[in-house]
Design a protein that fits this description.
By secondary structure, the chain is α+β, with helices and mostly antiparallel strands. It is 30% helix and 31% strand. Helix 1 packs across helix 3. The longest helix is centred in the middle third of the chain and has 17 residues, at 100-116. The model has no long low-confidence stretch (mean pLDDT 95).
């Protein structure tokens, strides 16, 4: 049995730089990963299949699940491969801005690579990831933060630094990515200048960056504002922002115990999904 963790993806900042003629939005984002996520197993040499369980498993076992799509994409790139039966424990909320499906796909590609002796840096693995969605290439390697550009397929070098105590909070409201991008109201061909972000992991520098999707996301799910307000009011909170297209928000704390206390309180008082974790920030 092979196992991989599909770690939650967090966008520390996300700037929208315009929209291409083909309709795709152009981004720059600093992406990192939490130490919690979904869990994926692969039992080798069985018929390709997927079983899904866990608190957010409902309706995810269909043929369009990104885990099965990843297996087919890998086969298209490499030809005949050893595959098997997947088992996914879905711990992360769906449609929540922390790359749950994309991270599942990345974990599936890593499992297939391990089973078949494929190097994780094989460009064909990256090509397979690119066919699955904008966030999947960065989710192939959750070991370190990276800058992500373009439609998500242009990745910077691995960035290393320190781990910070953090909290992830979702108001348990799914939010469709397409609707959030549509709320920006950009026309194909619109362009903006990128920001020059130095020492991107510094909290003071991060405070000067943005998530440009927060406005349209809050227009659709106003609870995002309440989540951010509650996090920023929590003792020990140093920085809070929405991740990705929402509705999950994250906060960085001085101490892990303060984050854990905030997560427990928000889960009980507000009935939100809230988890303490650690986030890697580049130095």
């Amino acid at each position: 049995m092979f196992r991989e963790s599909a770690q939650a993806k967090v966008n520390l900042f996300l700037h929208v730089l315009g929209r291409q003629a083909d309709g795709y939005h152009v981004l720059e984002s600093l992406v990192t990963f939490a130490d919690l996520g979904d869990e994926l197993e692969l039992e080798p040499d069985r018929p390709l299949a997927l079983a899904v369980e866990g608190p957010f498993a409902f309706g995810l076992a269909g043929d369009d699940n990104l885990v099965l799509k990843a297996a087919r994409a890998a086969t298209a790139q490499f030809g005949r491969l050893r595959l098997g039966a997947f088992r996914l424990v879905k711990n992360l909320p769906v449609a929540s801005g922390i790359g749950g499906g994309s991270s599942d796909a990345g974990a599936a590609l890593r499992l297939i690579a391990r089973l078949n002796g494929i190097d994780f840096d094989d460009p064909r693995l990256t090509d397979a990831a690119r066919t699955l969605g904008a966030d999947v290439p960065v989710c192939l390697d959750p070991t370190a933060p990276r800058l992500m550009h373009g439609i998500g397929h242009e990745l910077g070098n691995r960035l290393y630094g320190l781990r910070y105590p953090a909290v992830l909070v979702n108001p348990v409201v799914p939010l469709e990515t397409r609707a959030v991008f549509g709320g920006l109201g950009l026309s194909p061909g619109d362009r903006f200048l990128p920001m020059k972000v130095k020492t991107p992991g510094d909290l003071k520098v991060l405070a000067g960056t943005r998530n440009d999707l927060e406005g349209p996301a809050r227009a659709i799910v106003p609870e995002i504002g309440a989540v951010l307000e509650a996090l920023r009011a929590s003792p020990g909170c140093r920085f809070a922002r929405m991740s990705g297209s929402g509705a999950t928000c994250f906060a960085i704390f001085d101490h892990y115990a303060e984050g854990a206390e905030a997560a427990a309180r928000l889960q009980v008082e507000r009935e939100w999904w809230a988890r303490p974790t650690w986030l890697k920030l580049p130095s």
